[in-house]
Amino acid sequence: MNIYVGNLSYQVTEDDLREAFAAYGDISNVNIIRDRDTGQSKGFGFVEMSDNGQAEEAIQKLNESNLKGRNMKVNEARPREEKPKRNFRPRH
User: Fold this and answer.
1) 2-16 in b/e burial notation, b at 16+ Cβ within 10 A?
2) Which of 21-25, 38-42, 87-91 has the lowest mean pLDDT?
3) Which residues form the RRM domain (predicted)?
4) Dist CA 52 CA 5 (whole Å)
5) CATH 2.40.30.110 given to domain 2-76
6) d(CA 24, CA 17)
7) If you ran DSSP here, which 8-state letter would residue 10 be given?
8) Model confidence over 28-81: pLDDT tens digits?
9) Rounded to whole angstroms, what are the CA distances from 41 to 9, 18, 35, 59, 73?
10) To 5 degrees, how large is the angle CA 53–CA 59–CA 62?
């Protein structure tokens, strides 16, 4: 299951998230979303857990829990919505 983790402190690392979720089961992937230009965290990320039961427990226990000074928002990730394509018009 892919889990959305929001409201993260900018100081939270992928290792911090891995440690928090590892108490509930095996983690297959952790990814904090970063700004393409600056590399700064955008304050959210995703944790993938292979066992759905463990993932559900992690969501219940970790939602609204404090990690580095902020209460995380934790829920099942929704599929990414396709953004409408913009028409490119060069400026003159």
Assistant:
1) ebbbeebeeebeeeb
2) 87-91
3) 1-79
4) 16
5) no
6) 12
7) T
8) 999 999 999 999 999 999 999 999 999 999 999 999 999 999 999 999 999 877
9) 8, 16, 6, 21, 16
10) 130
C-alpha angle 16-8-6 in degrees, rounded to nearest 5? 110
- The answer to whether 4 and 72 have CB atoms below 8 angstroms apart is no
For residues 74 and 3, give the distance between their C-alpha atoms in angstroms, rounded to a whole number. 7
Q: What is the pTM of this model?
A: 0.84
Beta bridge partner(s), residue 67: 70
What is the residue extent of each domain of the chain? Answer: 2-76
14 is written with which tokens?
């992928």
Q: CA 47, 71, 9, 33: dihedral to nearest 10 degrees?
A: 30
Pairing of strands 27-34, 66-67: unpaired
